[in-house]
UniProtKB/TrEMBL annotation:
Gene3D superfamilies in alphabetical order: Aldolase class I
GO CC term, one of those recorded: cytosol
Name recorded for this polypeptide: Triosephosphate isomerase
InterPro entries, A to Z: Aldolase_TIM (IPR013785), TIM_sf (IPR035990), TrioseP_Isoase_bac/euk (IPR022896), Triosephosphate_isomerase (IPR000652), Triosephosphate_isomerase_AS (IPR020861)
Gene: tpiA
EC number: 5.3.1.1
Lineage: Bacteria, Pseudomonadati, Pseudomonadota, Gammaproteobacteria, Pasteurellales
Organism: Haemophilus parahaemolyticus
Recorded catalytic activity of this chain's protein: D-glyceraldehyde 3-phosphate = dihydroxyacetone phosphate
Enzyme class: isomerase
One function term, GO molecular function aspect: triose-phosphate isomerase activity
Length: 257
């Protein structure tokens, strides 16, 4: 089964009202003709309203968010719910990003709860996983990725990955300019798909596995030649419309030729 690639921009803690309007306008112009790749942007939640308004009238670019909370309503100061994200038309929701695991001490179990909340709400989880540089050097990459995936499988069953997205983001590659090589990334992606296939081949065949970590307009095309790399989660290079557009078009080209 051919998987439709997904390229998603993770804006992190960047932007303003004006920046959001301008970047979305630029993306709409650059990406108007894209057909063979799903595209999403995850601005800071503060700017979902601006992004939703700016995206109106097109269907190429979907809206996303960078986090969600497990509770739907009530006395949870500072939290943002699945229903609120839906209210703004957000569809693809990043969870388990290494920056949240590190700075907000989010555990595998807590992230699995977020995964469940998103599935219950009909939203698409984009589950970030990946190892630190020390874990990589200690040969623990597969163990770490398996543990992070198993937390979801243990809580929700392997079928939870139907219609979901995994972003493999080696932490040593995030924001460092030091992307994993296509062969390195492919090896881990194949491991991840195989790990899921051990529970369900059908689920493994359809799950989208993005690569993330210093993807840019110069290295994207080669990454997308790898069979188990189904797109990218892009940080820094998603803040400029021309660079992000090159990455989207590289995925479209590589996966439809
Ligand atoms: P980067 O970030 O592309 O700036 O390395 C990727 C991410 O953290 O999602």
């Amino acid at each position: 089964m051919a998987r439709r690639p997904l390229v998603m921009g993770n804006w992190k803690l960047n932007g303003s009202k004006v920046f959001t309007k301008e970047l979305v306008a630029g993306l709409k112009a650059e990406l108007a003709d894209v057909k063979g790749c799903d595209v999403a942007i995850a601005p800071p939640v503060m700017y979902l309203a601006e992004a939703e308004a700016a995206l109106a009238g097109q269907s190429v670019i979907s809206l996303g968010a960078q986090n969600v909370d497990v509770n739907v309503q009530g006395a949870f100061t500072g939290d943002i719910s699945t229903e609120m994200l839906k209210d703004f038309g957000a569809k693809y929701i990043i969870i388990g990003h290494s920056e949240r695991r590190t700075y907000h001490k989010e555990s595998d179990e807590f992230i699995a709860k977020k995964f469940g909340a998103l599935k219950a709400a009909g939203l698409v989880p984009v589950l970030c996983i990946g190892e630190t540089e020390a874990e990589n050097e200690a040969g623990q990459t597969e163990t770490v990725c398996a543990r992070q995936i198993d937390a979801v499988i243990d809580a929700l069953g392997v079928e939870a990955f139907n219609g979901a997205v995994i972003a493999y983001e080696p932490i040593w590659a995030i924001g460092t300019g030091k992307s994993a090589t296509p062969a390195q990334a492919q090896a881990v992606h194949a491991f991840i798909r195989g790990h899921i296939a051990a529970k369900s081949q059908a689920v493994a065949d359809q799950v989208i596995i993005q690569y993330g970590g210093s993807v840019n307009d110069a290295n994207a095309a080669e990454l997308f030649t790898q069979p188990d790399i189904d797109g990218a989660l892009v940080g820094g290079a998603s803040l400029k419309a021309p660079a992000f557009a090159v990455i989207v078009k590289a995925a479209e080209e590589a996966k439809n030729s």
